[in-house]
Amino acid sequence: MNETVQLNLAFILFLPWYLILAALYWAFPRQPRTLARWAFDVASLALASLATLASTQWSYRHADASVDAIWPQVLATAVSYGVFLGVMTAACFLRNRLIVAPHAARLGKGAPNNRLSGATP
To answer: CA 87: distance to chain centroid?
Structure first.
């Protein structure tokens, strides 16, 4: 197998799942659709992609291959998935705090999660 493909195999195999999660992150919540939101989302997805790729390569290179030949791939997959989810989770909370909640407050809608708590507007 090509050494570059082997080094990035965990990232390549999880790429469809990363794309699904990225599409969901991009689409929800539906409002506000401002330039600030667009820029924040692009930066978050770029950071998640770069961090995931870097963690895949780092964990593959630092795995103990004496355990088993497949262990570097297993470790690279687990670490890179955790890094992707960590970056995207942090981005969701930051986006809500910095962009979504202030937008809802300006429109007078109160907390953006009123529908979840059962309160009526």
So the answer is: 5
